[in-house]
Specification:
Blueprint (H helix, E strand, L loop, with lengths): L1 E3 L1 H7 L2 H13 L11 E5 L2 E9 L3 E9 L11 E9 L5 E6 H20 L6 E5 L3 H13 L4 E5 L3 H13 L3 E4 L10 E4 L18 E4 L12 H6 L1 E4 L2 H7 L1 H8 L8 E4 H6 L10 E4 L4 H21 L17
Parallel strand pairs: 1-6, 7-8, 7-10, 8-9, 10-11, 11-14, 12-13, 12-14
Antiparallel strand pairs: 2-3, 3-4, 4-5, 5-6
Helix pairs in contact: 2-3, 2-10, 3-4, 3-10
Length: 327
Amino acid sequence: MIHLGADDLAALLTPAAAVEALAGALRAGLDPEQCPRRSNIPVPAGELLVMPAASATYAGVKVAGVAPANPARGLPRITGGYLLLDGPTLLPLAMLDAAALTTLRTAAVSALAIDALAEPDTSRLVLFGAGPQAYAHLESALDTRELTHATVVSRSAARAERLVTYARELGLEARTGSPADVSFADLVICCTTAHEPLFEGRRVPAHATVVAVGSHQPTVRETDSELVRRSSLWVEARTAALREAGDLLIPLADGVITESDITGTLAALVGEGARPPADRPRLFKSVGMAWQDLVVAGAAHAALAGARSARPDLSVPGGTGRARRQS
């Protein structure tokens, strides 16, 4: 069985290719509402997430570990593997690095949302977080809009400075900042492990887009109820959001919004060409879904098969691609 590490995945599939794979699946009629639900299993070190999905071409399951104490040990917070199977026979095809796959597909989902929701002239980004997802989302946002400025807000000053340096290498005017900087943002991206709101929702301009990807727990959120009340609300799937998205479930429980206030889904934005209202902020809340892992893992496997077809002597990639920065 083929094993694909982070470098291998990067060599096989660019972020833009991952975005196109997800968009193609939605345009072809994939229904995220039918995606199997995630299983959360508590373990002494944290939790295990088990995420299965299947299509006619591929099946797969991700077993991801979430170990909150790992960063203090110099280890990644997200671990695990993704087992990709042949759809018709269920024979194993490949094992992929789960952390790298999760980072790639999460940023690709956000890129689809940003492309559909953010104003065309979006240029000023405020980015909460400075881990692997923040790097991936910075790159995806740059691929989607012509950003000129980036402000990084993080609990770790050292990590924030490293991300600022990287943003400058990408050609942006970049600096560290504070939550109040959302007042001047066109785009706000939240990639954190925060349990409470990161900023005051009243400060977000009416033209801005907010993407929140950091949590999938009903009692945890990165955005406050005021932002949710003010915004048009977009999700990957209503079923998943109403199970796991604390950013929406907490305001729902408090009577700030109702389920009917969820404006639409990623499938409506991508497959149906839905467009958001222009007179209020747009909030896209992502919890991460198994269909996304399957589509991106399948695209990577297809890319490897295509490369081998073109060069029959080609071996499994051996780390020739650029790994996602883990600072």
